[in-house]
């Protein structure tokens, strides 16, 4: 019976945990790649080593997704491979402006000699659903793609810096498709909600501050013989579970939304938090039963 319960519990834990080395929007489908004995996968000339790819079941389809942005800078394209904006819509084109796609790179406003198509890995998907268009040909608008992947936008409202994962770039062709200019689709800023990083940090601080008091309670009951009765021992076990769970849960709170975390570390921390809380809740139930039996 214990073996069955342990197996069911492990299954539930593994199903509920999703540890990926990169976000979905920074992943590429490498299902058709060649896998080697060292667990690396080669797809379209790029090698994805162990830890730089993961498996995902998406709408009933088993996919193998690679993380090209680990150890390399990525740049989002607004249109698919071989396409560009033609009269406001993504359309295939054989124009030399996108074959290869090689927009100028800058350090601030100083032109760099680095070639974009050699420096960046292009991700052919937009990083967000809702975005606004920034046109370098519009009055007062300037776009400068930086070598580090950020975007420097000069607008009538003042200069704005955009993080690498908050925009996509593409070439825009006019009606006769003879001239091209650089445009960017910039994501709208996220509205601060209860899931903001500040709130997660506050959760983590609160959890860490609780640990010394739980530890003090544990030590008092451990070193005073008069308190080491049945109720005291249950309370010590309950506090012990929380003492283990809270620091690891605080660690998870501080790393919400981060990518590049090792799969092994993610699983180990998840198991520790899960079983520490299971232990504390079990002893809490025992304490409740003991109190009920005492006062009935």
UniProtKB/TrEMBL annotation:
Signal peptide coordinates: 1-19
Source domain of life: Eukaryota
GO molecular function annotations of the record: G protein-coupled peptide receptor activity
Subcellular location(s) per record: Endomembrane system
Transmembrane feature ranges: 200-223, 235-252
The UniProt record lists the keyword Transmembrane: yes
Keywords on record: G-protein coupled receptor, Membrane, Receptor, Signal, Transducer, Transmembrane, Transmembrane helix
Recorded family membership: Belongs to the G-protein coupled receptor 2 family. Mth subfamily.
Name the record gives this protein: Methuselah N-terminal domain-containing protein
